[in-house]
C-alpha cells in the first residue's frame, strides 16, 4: 500500500512504524472475513481493511472526525486479523498508533473521558479496586444485573503453599485478578508447588499495563512496564527460571514490553530480557507435567466433559494455539470441539464496559458454540473472558489451572 506520510509525522517512530506496516497491506480483505465487528455490523469501516484505510488517511494528513474515532473504538484489538493476514500486517501496533494520533486531534465527549479515566485509574490500583470488589461481592445479590455481571461470586481460594523450593519462577501480581478470582493465583501456586517450583511475586509489581494501553494511555502503560521490570530485576539476576503469566491478556502485554520501551535506552535492554523470560503458563507447564506423568507423580484423572475457550490474547496475541486443549486431553479430560473458536467472546479488556451492546452480542454468539455440546465445564485462560462468559451462562466457567489443581489434589488424596 503506497503511503505518503504527513510532514508532521515523518521521521518519528510512530510515522516510520505506521508506514512500514501499511506498506505490507495488499488490500486482499482476508482479514474482513474473520473480524468479529465486521461480522456483526457489515460495515467495511468496522473491519480491519476499512480501519487501515482510515488510519492511512490520518497519517497522510487528513483530519480525523468523531466517526473515525468511533470506528477505531469499536475494534476489539483481538488481532484475529493478524492470524488471517497472508502478508504479515502488524495490525495491533498499527491501530495503537492510529488511536493515539486520532485522540490527539479529536476531543472525546466529557462522558467518555470520565468513564475511561475512571476505568484507567481505579482498575489498575489494587488499594482501590480490592476493597471495592470485596464490597461488591458482599452485596452482590442486591446489585442490578448490569453491575452484577461485572462482580463474580467469590470463591474460596483455598490454602496457599508455604514451603520453599530451589527452583523459582516469577509470577505477575496483577491488578483485577487477585481481587475478582483469587482462586486462580492460589491454584497456580499449588500446582507449581506440587511440581517442586516456588512461585514468587516480588513486592512492588502490579498491573501489567494492558488496561492503560487499551485506553490509549501509552505513557502510563510504559510506566507500569518499568515498575514491573524494576520489581522483577533482582530475581532475574538471581536466576529465576521464567516469568510465568496465568492471565493471557497480561502475558500478551508483558511480551510487548520490548516494543513499548524500544525508545528508552535505559529500559529497553532490560525489557528485552523480560520478554525473553516471559511465558504463558500454557507454554511452560506442559513439559513439567509430562515429566510428572512419566515419573508417576501425576496420573490422568477421570474423564470430565469440557470445552476450552482460547482467549484472543492467547491464540492471536501470543500465537499459542492448541496447547491447553492437548494438555487437558493428556490429563484425562474429554475436550469437546467448539465452533468458531477463533472469534472473540467480546470481553477484550474494558471493551465490555465501553461497548456493551457489541460485547453482549459477541458473548451470546460465543456461548451458543461453547454450550452446544453440553459440557460440564467451560475452561479458559484469561480473567476477563472468564468473568464475561460466566455472566451469560449457568455452566461453570473456570480457569484451566483451577481444573488442573483440583485433579492433582484428588490424585494425591
| Radius of gyration over C-alpha positions, nearest whole angstrom | 21 Å
Low-confidence runs of at least 5 consecutive residues: none
Give the total of beta strands.
8
Tell me about the largest β-sheet: 4 strands, parallel
**Mean of all residue-level pLDDT scores:** 94
Percent of sequence in beta strands? 5-15%
Corresponding CATH architecture of the largest domain: 3-Layer(aba) Sandwich
Q: Terminal Cα separation, in Å?
A: 61 Å
Using the alpha-carbon principal axes, give the shape. globular
- Oligomer type: single chain
Instruction: Enumerate the strands of the largest sheet in spatial order, edge to edge or round the barrel.
Output: 2-1-3-4
Would you summarize the structure shown here?
With 413 residues, the protein is α/β, with parallel strands linked by helices. It has helices spanning 13-22, 30-33, 36-41, 48-59, 66-73, 80-84, 91-105, 110-122, 126-138, 145-148, 177-180, 182-194, 210-214, 218-237, 248-254, 257-260, 268-277, 281-295, 312-317, 323-330, 351-354, 356-370, 383-390, 400-412, and strands at 167-171, 197-200, 243-245, 278-280, 305-308, 334-335, 377-380, 397-399. Helix 4 (48-59) packs across helix 7, helix 5 runs antiparallel to helix 7 (91-105) and helix 12 (182-194) crosses helix 24 (400-412).
Amino acid at each position: 500500500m503506497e503511503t505518503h506520510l504527513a510532514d508532521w509525522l515523518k521521521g518519528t517512530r510512530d510515522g516510520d512504524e505506521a508506514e512500514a506496516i501499511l506498506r505490507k497491506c495488499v488490500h486482499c480483505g482476508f482479514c474482513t472475513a474473520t473480524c468479529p465487528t465486521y461480522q456483526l455490523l457489515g460495515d467495511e469501516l468496522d473491519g480491519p481493511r476499512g480501519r487501515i484505510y482510515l488510519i492511512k488517511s490520518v497519517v497522510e494528513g487528513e483530519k480525523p472526525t468523531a466517526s473515525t474515532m468511533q470506528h477505531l473504538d469499536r475494534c476489539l484489538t483481538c488481532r484475529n486479523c493478524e492470524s488471517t493476514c497472508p502478508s504479515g500486517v502488524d495490525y495491533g501496533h498499527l491501530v495503537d498508533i492510529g488511536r493515539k494520533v486520532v485522540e490527539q486531534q479529536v476531543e472525546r465527549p466529557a462522558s467518555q473521558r470520565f468513564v475511561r479515566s475512571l476505568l484507567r485509574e481505579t482498575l489498575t490500583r489494587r488499594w482501590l479496586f480490592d476493597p471495592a470488589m470485596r464490597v461488591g461481592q458482599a452485596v452482590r445479590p442486591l446489585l442490578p444485573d448490569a453491575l452484577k455481571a461485572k462482580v463474580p461470586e467469590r470463591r474460596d481460594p483455598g490454602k496457599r503453599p508455604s514451603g520453599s523450593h530451589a527452583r523459582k519462577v516469577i509470577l505477575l501480581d496483577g491488578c483485577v485478578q487477585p481481587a475478582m478470582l483469587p482462586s486462580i493465583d492460589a491454584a497456580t501456586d499449588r500446582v507449581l508447588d506440587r511440581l517442586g517450583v516456588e512461585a514468587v511475586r516480588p513486592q512492588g509489581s502490579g498491573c501489567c499495563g494492558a488496561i492503560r494501553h487499551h485506553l490509549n494511555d501509552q505513557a502510563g502503560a510504559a510506566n507500569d512496564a518499568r515498575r514491573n521490570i524494576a520489581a522483577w530485576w533482582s530475581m532475574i539476576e538471581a536466576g529465576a527460571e521464567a516469568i510465568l503469566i496465568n492471565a493471557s491478556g497480561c502475558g500478551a502485554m508483558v511480551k510487548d514490553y520490548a516494543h513499548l520501551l524500544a525508545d528508552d535506552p535505559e529500559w529497553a535492554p532490560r525489557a528485552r530480557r523480560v520478554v525473553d523470560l516471559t511465558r504463558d503458563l500454557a507454554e511452560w507447564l506442559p513439559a513439567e507435567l509430562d515429566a510428572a506423568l512419566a515419573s508417576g507423580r501425576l496420573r490422568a484423572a477421570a474423564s470430565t466433559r469440557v470445552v476450552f475457550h482460547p482467549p484472543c490474547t492467547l491464540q492471536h496475541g501470543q500465537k499459542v494455539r492448541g496447547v491447553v486443549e492437548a494438555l487437558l486431553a493428556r490429563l484425562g479430560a474429554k475436550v469437546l470441539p467448539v465452533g468458531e473458536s477463533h472469534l472473540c467472546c467480546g470481553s477484550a479488556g474494558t471493551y465490555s464496559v465501553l461497548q456493551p451492546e457489541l460485547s453482549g452480542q459477541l458473548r451470546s454468539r460465543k456461548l451458543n458454540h461453547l454450550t452446544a455440546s453440553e459440557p460440564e465445564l467451560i475452561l479458559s485462560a484469561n480473567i476477563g473472558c472468564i468473568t464475561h462468559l460466566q455472566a451469560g451462562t449457568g455452566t461453570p466457567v473456570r480457569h484451566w489451572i483451577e481444573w488442573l489443581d483440583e485433579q492433582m489434589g484428588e490424585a494425591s488424596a
